[in-house]
């Protein structure tokens, strides 16, 4: 019995050995081991929770959950460390006061980081942005493929990745082409020569839209006579598609087809014309005047 008491006494002395010993801060080996054990247990429990929840989530929502989960996990770790230190008798008030200057410096340095993190949490909770959305920012159209806690990553039409800080979505105006649904309306501007049969032009444009497999049948494409331009009659072909990210390619196909149909039907697309008026004035008259010393009353000395 005495043997076990000696062992326990030795263990207690070891755990009570101070790592940091000041007037207000007293951290022992036991405190440090308690923090490590609690963190290990909490990490194991969180892994089980993560595995259980993500197994039932759709693939599109997993990344959102992981972002929030990681944020809450690190926040929980900080709370655990503070709680264990406080329970061990560490005077946290003095510790925080001594570190006030450091926290102020870190606050200024990390303010944009925290701003992005909070914005990321709000975006995920608000459901204002989803993976797969087609957005326009700074006149660049791109598709969202990953929403992280601090940044959102998008892919442009020329396969370039844009990394967007999350606070941009809360402070700037962003076009979201697919916020409500995947259907978007696109438009092509076409000019034809004056004197062209406008009814024939309308029929050709409507037929081109109907013949394109990427253009939706409902809502139906329609043609508008927009304006009498300086050198052309201006039309717009409006149509609906579900692949707004691939709109440039669809428009290119339709332009090829329109050009072919116009050639076959003798409809010309004019180039800009300008009338130049030349006004000719009377030619400049030049007369030579000879001055002499006699005319000016200047004689020889």
From TrEMBL:
Residues 113-178 form the Mechanosensitive ion channel MscS domain. The chain crosses the membrane at residues 27-46, 66-85, 92-114. One of its GO terms (cellular component) is plasma membrane. The keyword Cell membrane applies. GO terms for molecular function: mechanosensitive monoatomic ion channel activity. Its main location: membrane. It is a multi-pass membrane protein. Gene3D superfamilies: 1.10.287.1260, 2.30.30.60, 3.30.70.100. This is Mechanosensitive ion channel. It comes from Kriegella aquimaris.
């Amino acid at each position: 019995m005495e043997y076990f008491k000696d062992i326990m006494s030795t263990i207690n002395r070891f755990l009570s050995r101070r790592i940091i010993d000041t007037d207000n801060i007293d951290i022992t080996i036991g405190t440090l081991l308690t923090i490590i054990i609690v963190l290990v247990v909490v990490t194991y429990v969180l892994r089980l929770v993560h595995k259980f929840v993500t197994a039932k989530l759709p693939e599109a929502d997993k990344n959102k959950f992981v972002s929030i989960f990681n944020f809450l996990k690190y926040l929980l770790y900080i709370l655990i460390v503070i709680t264990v230190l406080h329970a061990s008798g560490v005077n946290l008030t003095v510790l925080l006061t001594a570190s006030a200057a450091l926290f102020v410096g870190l606050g200024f340095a990390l303010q944009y980081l925290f701003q992005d993190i909070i914005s990321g949490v709000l975006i995920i909770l608000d459901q204002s942005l989803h993976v797969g959305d087609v957005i326009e920012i700074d006149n660049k159209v791109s598709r969202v493929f990953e929403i992280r806690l601090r940044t959102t990553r998008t892919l442009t039409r020329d396969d370039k990745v844009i990394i967007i800080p999350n606070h941009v979505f809360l402070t700037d105006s962003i076009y979201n082409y697919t916020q409500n649904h995947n259907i978007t309306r696109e438009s092509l501007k076409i000019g034809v020569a004056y004197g062209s049969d406008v009814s024939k032009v309308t029929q050709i444009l409507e037929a081109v839209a109907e013949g394109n497999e990427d253009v939706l049948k409902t809502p139906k494409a329609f043609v508008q006579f927009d304006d009498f331009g300086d050198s052309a009659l201006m039309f717009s072909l409006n149509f609906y598609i579900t692949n707004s990210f691939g709109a440039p390619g669809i428009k290119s196909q339709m332009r090829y087809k329109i050009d072919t149909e116009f050639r076959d039907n003798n409809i010309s697309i004019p180039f800009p014309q300008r009338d130049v008026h030349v006004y000719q004035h009377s030619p400049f008259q030049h007369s030579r005047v000879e001055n002499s010393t006699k005319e000016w009353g200047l004689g020889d000395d």
